[in-house]
Specification:
By secondary structure, this protein is α+β, with helices and mostly antiparallel strands. Helices cover 26% and strands 25% of the residues. It folds into three domains: 67 residues, 2-Layer Sandwich (Uridine Diphospho-n-acetylenolpyruvylglucosamine Reductase, domain 2); 125 residues, Uridine Diphospho-n-acetylenolpyruvylglucosamine Reductase, domain 3 (2-Layer Sandwich); 85 residues, Uridine Diphospho-n-acetylenolpyruvylglucosamine Reductase, domain 1, CATH 3.90.78. A hairpin with a 7-residue loop joins strand 16 and strand 17. The structure holds flavin-adenine dinucleotide. Flavin-adenine dinucleotide binds next to strand 3, helix 3, strand 9 and strand 13. The site of flavin-adenine dinucleotide (FAD) has 32 residues, from strand 3, helix 3, strand 9 and strand 13.
């Protein structure tokens, strides 16, 4: 599809929650040049912008976003020896599958994680004890404020649990990334892909309208009422938030058309027709319950778009 900026585009279909009102302006960018064109247009017209990838970690306001939504769709993937380079809009699962099929290990866990390379590199997506920080060697970035392009090493990205420096620098856009993989037998890699997928399907509500984990697992040090936690959690750095939510009897709790999954309490599901307020209300309710039972203030892993109270600066 050629590059064009369209008006009044409903965002719900571009998110896995299927929630969210219209973007005043919307475009898909398939290359660096198209991204540049979109950014220049937004700058010239003084229209705020936000980028999205697969929309699999987003809760978009029912009133939508009064600006330009740029959907990253530069999906190029290339293999050079044991290195894989991918555009920010490349689908993470496709990169994981391409790598595993080529006998390059390191992303087998990611096959069941929706979204794009840009979203995964920014949020340090991970599963089953692995995450993106283990394979990232170089990330190409545009500083949309200064109009500069530069490269960052993993040390400069400052990776942590589901976080990176990108979360503190909302004017930085990821355009591509380079990953160091480990050579392995492709059949073994594909076996691991299947195993991880199986584990994910049995423990999480896959195939539902959700956005993965709503909250980050809080550090064990945040817990004031330590006596209430099973001993096996005490040796871990973080408490599984699913367990905290379960202890508050929240599995299956419904507000409007938003429901806390009965399969995994940290997955909130749109039963069909949930509004932003249904989902945001359910999130607030769960936070309050965990705060009063355990004295912990949960932090969202999902990102908000269009809510003036929670949206980062460039959004
Ligand atoms: C069923 C299901 C299972 C999931 N399982 C997991 C899991 O196991 N582990 C896990 O970590 N996550 C999981 N998630 C959450 C989600 O898949 C990840 O967070 C994913 O990395 C988000 O990528 P995305 O492209 O969809 O980002 P989006 O949701 O589109 O955006 C997320 C944020 O990244 C920003 N962003 C996107 N692209 C760029 C870019 N190029 N440059 C700068 N910023 C950008 C956006 O502005 C936004 O703030 C799951 C989600 C679902 C629906």
């Amino acid at each position: 599809m050629p590059f064009e900026i369209t008006e009044n585009v409903t965002l719900a279909p571009f998110t896995t929650y299927k929630i969210g009102g219209p973007a005043r302006y919307f475009c898909r960018v398939h290359s660096y040049d198209e991204l540049k064109e979109a950014l220049i247009w937004s700058h010239k017209n003084e229209i705020p912008f936000v980028v999205i990838g697969g929309g699999s970690n987003l809760l978009v306001h029912d009133e939508g976003f009064d600006g330009l939504v740029i959907k990253m769709e530069d999906r190029g993937i290339s293999i050079k020896g044991t290195l894989i380079e991918a555009g920010a809009g490349a689908v993470l699962a496709t990169v994981a599958y391409t790598a595993s099929e080529a006998g390059l290990s390191g992303l087998e866990w990611a096959f069941g994680v929706p979204g794009t390379i840009g979203g995964a590199v920014r949020g340090n997506a991970g599963a089953f004890g692995s995450d993106m920080s283990e394979i990232v060697v170089d990330v190409e970035v545009i500083d949309t404020e200064k109009g500069t392009v530069f490269h960052l090493s993993p040390q400069e990205i400052g990776y942590g649990y589901r976080t990176s420096r990108f979360k503190k620098e909302p004017t930085w856009l990821i355009t591509r990334a380079l990953f160091q993989m480990n050579p392995d037998d492709s059949a073994y890699c594909m076996e691991r892909v299947e195993e991880f997928l199986e584990k994910k399907n049995t423990s999480q509500p896959t195939g539902k309208q959700c956005a993965g984990s709503v909250f980050q697992n809080p550090p064990i040090s945040d817990l004031s009422r330590i006596s209430e936690v099973p001993v096996e959690f005490l040796s871990r750095e973080r408490i599984p938030v699913g367990w905290l939510l379960e202890q508050c009897n929240l599995k299956g709790h419904v507000i409007g058309q938003a429901c806390i999954s009965t399969k995994h309490a940290n997955f909130f599901v749109n039963l069909g027709g949930a509004t932003y307020e249904d989902m945001a209300g359910l999130i607030r309710f769960a936070k309050d319950r965990v705060a009063s039972k355990f004295g912990i203030l949960l932090k969202e892993e999902i990102q908000y778009i269009g809510n003036p109270n929670t949206v980062p600066l460039n959004h």
